[in-house]
Amino acid sequence: MGTDSRRGNGDLHDRVHRAIAGPVTEAEKLLAELHDAPLETTLPILVSGWGRGLAAGLQELASAVGAVPPPQADLGQPTPLRPPQPDDADAPQPPSEDPERRDLDEAGVEQLTEEARRSREETAEASREADETRRDLEQ
Questions:
Q1: Where are the domains of the chain?
Q2: What spatial distance separates the first Cα and last Cα of the chain, rounded to whole Å?
Q3: C-alpha distances in angstroms, 83 versus 26, 71, 89, 99?
Q4: pLDDT of 3
């Protein structure tokens, strides 16, 4: 986070920092008293302090997020999509105007099965070409 974003949320940053620092400091004080304690004793104290500190910091963040009012943007009605106009030369034709699509709409089971087989072959070929290109780029 940059200093500019921190300035606007300085209060929140300070609250989160204090929430984390409190339990961590308590754990460090306890560890200072146990200066000759084995690692099996000190490590759980340190982890517990940090865990409690992070939990408190997250609670502060959750409180801040919960206090943010929902956006008041007026979404209104969406703008309806307009169908392509005849003078739109670049506009794609609707599927019913596509001659291949019209043929498939009127096709029988055998023709559809053949079209599906041909499409799978083209897809497999495109996949092979993509794999070859990928291998060439990796070399």
A1: 9-67, 95-138
A2: 39
A3: 68, 32, 13, 20
A4: 46
Tokens of 122: 């083209």
Which residues, other chains included, contact 94 with Cβ-Cβ below 8 Å and sequence gap of 6+? 84
Q: What does the DSSP 8-state code read for residue 68?
A: S
59 in helix, strand or coil? helix
Tokens of 61: 């963040």
Q: What is the CA radius of gyration of the chain?
A: 32
Q: Identify the band that residue 65 occupies on the pLDDT scale cut at 50, 70 and 90.
A: confident
Residues counted in the chain: 139
Check residue 35 and report its DSSP letter. Answer: T
Give, for 95, the enclosing helix (H) or strand (E): none
CB 26 within 8 A of CB 49: yes
- Residue identified by tokens 């169908």 is 83
Residue 82 pLDDT: 76
Q: What percent of the chain has pLDDT over 70?
A: 73
% pLDDT > 90, the chain: 20
CB burial string 57-71: b at 16+ within 10 A, e below = beebeeeeeeeeeee
Task: Give pLDDT, residue 73.
Answer: 63
